[in-house]
Amino acid sequence: MQKTDLSLYNNHPYHPGGNAFTRFLWHYTNSFFFKSGLFPVYGTKRFLLKAFGAKLGKSVTIKPYVNIKYPWNLTIGDNAWIGENVWLDSLEMITIGANACISQGATILTGSHNYKKATFDLITAPVTLEDGVWIGAGAIVNQGITIASHAVLTSGSVATKNLQAYSIYQGNPAVKVRDRIIE
């Protein structure tokens, strides 16, 4: 029976973008300004994200202790909120729509591994969260997922397939439990 052999792992042809110096500089900028609670100033965080290639709308809120893999693979719309301890694993593009909310401790993944191969190959795909989406605390959105306009992924739930607009999803894997009606 074949076994996983991580000594054979090679993430070719994946390339994270940017050059080695930019990735090095981002690593320390991310650690000091984003992954810590030292700089709760949203304007400074927006400036730094834009300087590293992120595309941001107006009045984006990024709370303390947020981990962003590669900002050049990040687009965030107007008035979006990114809560404490959110992990944006932006190996590929993460698009977050206007007025979307990602609550504390949520994880947005654009990468995984092919467990069927001994080489544990990297698998990547972009994630899109459309306008008005709410990702609940501790929820996980997997690579390649689109969460349609104003859908809700409840706390602790896991999105393994696309979510329909104006719908509320719950569980692991997340299933639709009802419609979202906004008054």
Q: Can you write the helix and strand succession as a string?
A: HHEEEEEEEEEEEEEEEEEEE
The CATH class: Mainly Beta
Uncertain ranges: none
Number of H- or I-type helical stretches: 2
| Beta strands, count | 19
Q: What's the CATH architecture? A: 3 Solenoid
Would you kindly provide a written description of the structure presented here, covering whatever features stand out?
- This protein is of the alpha/beta class.
- It has one domain: UDP N-Acetylglucosamine Acyltransferase, domain 1.
- The chain is built from 2 helices and 19 strands.
- β10 (111-113) and β11 (122-124) form a beta hairpin.
- The longest helix has 15 residues, at 20-34.
Brief account:
With about 180 residues, the protein is α/β, with parallel strands linked by helices. The chain is about 15% helix and about 25% strand.
Helices and strands in order:
Layout: H1 20-34, H2 42-51, E1 55-56, E2 61-62, E3 67-68, E4 74-76, E5 81-82, E6 87-89, E7 94-96, E8 101-102, E9 107-109, E10 111-113, E11 122-124, E12 127-129, E13 134-135, E14 140-141, E15 146-147, E16 152-153, E17 158-159, E18 167-170, E19 175-179
Parallel strand pairs: 1-4, 2-5, 3-6, 4-7, 5-8, 6-9, 7-12, 8-13, 9-14, 12-15, 13-16, 14-17, 16-18
Antiparallel strand pairs: 10-11, 18-19
Core attributes:
183 residues; alpha/beta; UDP N-Acetylglucosamine Acyltransferase, domain 1; 7-stranded mixed sheet; 5-stranded parallel sheet; globular
